[in-house]
Specification:
The protein is α/β, with parallel strands linked by helices and 230 residues long. It has a domain of 81 residues: Cytochrome b5-like heme/steroid binding domain (Flavocytochrome B2, Chain A, domain 1), CATH 3.10.120. It has 7 helices and 5 strands, in the order H-H-H-E-H-E-E-H-E-H-H-E. Keywords: Heme, Iron, Metal-binding. This is Cytochrome b5. One of its GO terms (molecular function) is metal ion binding.
């Protein structure tokens, strides 16, 4: 420090002294037995598992016996498919171990009901022709205004030339629809002058009567008025 101040006062720049690293010499640790070379034997073999003197090895020292086919567990019994009749359950349910669900019934299905016969329509009387007739503006009602029609009044219109019928509470003039009906005029005459809702539903419930006969609406079906005097 003193030399640094003297050089600074004399106007000379100080000369930096490089740091010289100090190398430390580490002597190897001395052995307890100096002058004697000790050799350690290493065993690289894999140890036995389980140990040679363990209880597990003593229990498995016997060679397992190979079972024959007769000693093995037999397969589950499967009924012979050749003796089974489709749709008929086995005679004895105890003797059968089939995984299939038993038949629900052994009765024959009922025969389908007789289909309603359709008649051959005359040319110009197809469903498209009926739709064209409704939209043509032709008067198919036969009345000026809608009416409240009791069953006694409905019964008066039961001829082929003047046929009214009620479906779902609405009364229609079905006279013009006779030649267009696929079931024929005879079927329509069964509901002429009366409420034909039940017959219509049992015959063709999928048909929309309101859309088919909207241009033939004449009124609404009401209960018969009472004749008792007050």
């Amino acid at each position: 420090m003193t030399s640094y101040l003297r050089s600074w006062l004399a106007g000379k720049p100080p000369v930096a002294t490089p740091d010289i690293p100090t190398v430390l010499k580490i002597s190897p640790p001395g052995s307890d037995d100096e002058g004697e070379d000790t050799e350690i034997e290493q065993d690289d073999s894999v140890p036995a598992f389980p140990a040679l003197n363990s209880a597990q090895r003593a229990a498995t020292s016997k060679i397992p016996r190979i079972l024959s086919d007769s000693a093995l567990m037999p397969p589950p019994p499967v009924p012979s498919l050749a003796r089974r009749t489709p749709g008929v359950p086995p005679k004895s349910p105890k003797s059968s171990s089939s995984l299939l669900a038993p038949a629900s019934t052994t009765q024959r299905p009922p025969k389908p009901s007789k289909k309603r016969d359709k008649v051959a329509l005359a040319p110009g009387h197809s469903p498209l022709d009926w739709a064209a007739l409704k939209s043509s503006g032709t008067d198919l009602r036969g009345v000026d205004t809608l009416m409240r029609i009791p069953p006694s009044v409905l019964k008066q219109h039961r001829s082929k030339a003047d046929a009214w019928s009620a479906f779902n509470g609405k009364v229609y003039n079905i006279t013009a629809y006779f030649p267009f009906h696929p079931g024929g005029e005879r079927e329509l005459m069964r509901v002429a002058g009366r409420d034909g809702t039940d017959l219509f539903t049992s015959t063709h419930a999928w048909v929309n009567a309101d859309f088919m006969l909207d241009s033939c609406l004449v009124g609404f079906l009401i209960p018969e008025p009472s004749t008792d005097s007050p």
